[in-house]
Amino acid sequence: MAEDKVLNMQDEETVVDDVLQHVEAEEEFETEYRFFAGLKLPESDEVIKDFEIREMTGADEESLQVNSRKNMNEARSINKLLERCIVRIGSMTPQTVGVDKWREMIRNLSVPDADYALLMIRRLSFGNDIVLTSSCPECGAGIKTSVPISELEVKPYGGDSSHTTTFTLRTGIIGKNGEVYKEGTMRLPTGVDREILLPLYKQNMGKAKTLMLTRLCTFDGLKVVTEDMIRNLSVRDRTILTDLNKDMNDFGLDYETDVYCEKCGTEYNSKFEDSSVSFQ
User: Which of 24-28, 29-33, 127-131, 263-267 has the lowest mean pLDDT?
Assistant: First the structure.
């Protein structure tokens, strides 16, 4: 990225000026988009990809702040904002399906699709640029980089409409009578999963990984998968599953960008977290 896009954290006025230069006063963005994986309707297995958003209002901003303070769960705040600012999915609206059904639909979006919708709402409401804060890995200098959302790389969804993929483990789950269960299916994580897992992830990443795999995986021949079963998997088998989950979620917008440090001349790659995009 060009050096004029890379700004020292101490130069706050330059950061503001840089962003304003890249967002024209009359700049307008689309309100209709398409999900990558799409919303899978359980009652019909239909996958819907068309959706429409609206710009945030002061009421949305107030709701976002209050929800964040009360719950300290960014994932819940994201889902709440999507409920309010996504106004149509396919031919369905909150008015046609009801509030409870709409909330369920939003929370069942895959995480990459939810993050994509979130970023489009952010762009419509605040403009095309996001300021990424990072630290130079060589000299430790704090750097702010203006990142245009429209320039982020797009990765297509490579899965099918089932939103699942199969796996085979090395050792697998060993039953009480010596039965071995190695093969199974993993599904895409949704907003519901993120709401549940995020607080635990902040406390204990190992436990969060166990709960995540318990929720996402089924095993051929097993009616129920418990946390103890996943906890007792070998580290290699757990790695197979976590790597598979990472690969399944590798679609949507790529949040990595190149950063240049003016202080020492180092170029490095940094990433802003899609689930913690600032709405201030």
Answer: 24-28
Q: What is the pLDDT of residues 90-102, one digit of tens each?
A: 999 999 999 999 9
Q: 């403009």: which residue's tokens?
A: 127
Q: Could you identify the residue written with the tokens 């757990």?
A: 238
Is the confidence at residue 43, as pLDDT, over 90? Answer: no
